[in-house]
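ok posting inputs for the adenosine monophosphate job
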Amino acid sequence: MKILIVGSGGREHSLAWRLAASKRVTEIVCAPGNPGMAALARCEPVNADDVEGQVTLAKRERPNLVIVGPEAPLVAGLADRLRAIDVPVFGPSARAAILEGSKAYSKDFMARHAIPTAAHGCFSDPSVAKAFLGRFSAPYVLKADGLAAGKGVVIAQTRREAEDEIDAMLAGKFGTASARIVIEEFMAGEEASFFALCDGETAVALAGAQDHKRVGEGDTGPNTGGMGAYSPAPILDEAMQRRVMEEIVAPTLQGMKAEGRPYRGVLFVGLMIDKTGPRVVEYNCRFGDPECQVIMARLKDDPLPQLLACATGGLDGCARLERFTDHAVSVVMAGAGYPGDSRKGGVIGGLRQAGGVPGVTIFHGATMSRDDEIIANGGRVLNVTAIAPTLSEAVARAYRAVDLIDWPDGFCRRDIGWRALERS
Ligand code: AMP
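and the output
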């Protein structure tokens, strides 16, 4: 079977790596891919966001399955375009990807279907928005409606700050993405990520994970795309996963179907969990990066039948993916300056030695190759991923590998997994 993977990050590298181990996969094409993926697959120079280019590539390659990694092409309708030419695709239609593409839509959807989440309002008029703040006390949660590369959420500590932020967002701080904003109640609790596979009719639980969004140790400093992750998430034990499936995933799938937007692909639910149970922080219409890396690293079953069933139906007839290595952790190495402008162009050495640490796999993010060298080419550059029977051993293996990487411009957090380690 021939698989086309759309994207170029560590998430897509981990998907390519896992599928390369499938007995049924004969060929993997990545578009555009990265040097890590080039070791497993053929890379074609078509950007993930280039919907026309991806459709042309799929017409030429005729893959048996396309897996779309990032959200932007899904929200822009890539899955619809591929289905229209009879190419099976793992990923939701644009009408279903709206769960991530519009926070106003997803919040109103949850209200319509009584799915537990923070109380909210949607606004495009600053004075109405400011008056609504009176319903809540600090801190205030303000969100751009549309996609803003993970930067569209602001938590304001004072009412004054919230009012200034409302003005800035509605004046175009995030371009058209913040022409409309959502204001919501602040939820306290512990965050976790939950992933379910869906074929429009049926949803099956895949796994839980937790990530570290802040750049600094102790979860401090600016938000990033994610500095590390681990799976499983202790807070998402079997009982909590069942609750998430029953109280959140099942009504989401039913609601989307009832609204004529059947959801296919992976549903990534960002959760806030407190003593009353799980509530939705946000939906995403694709795997998380770096959560995907830890889930793929743990997975012992071949996921291909389930991924195909998400694309073509029949997930209820597939066995649940349930054979996992006990623990996985992924440490993100980023270029100095990230999440601001990061230093590019540095040569990365020691990858072979680091990849030789037992249980370790290194997924590439923003790298490029020049001659025989791997060069840093963006913010999040490497995902040093380790599996082990315990989380502490997985963490020790990952950092042993990090220490073998010779990249003076790179940095990573040294405390990935701290919350789960403290708990155990
Ligand atoms: P989002 O992009 O919606 O996931 O928001 C980014 C981050 O902001 C989340 O991971 C949370 O840490 C935080 N956040 C978003 N909404 C809320 C909320 N209602 N209460 C508390 N924290 C929130």
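notes: The chain has a mean pLDDT of 96. The pocket of adenosine monophosphate is lined by residues 118, 141, 143, 153, 184-187, 191, 213, 270, 281-282 (CB under 6 Å).
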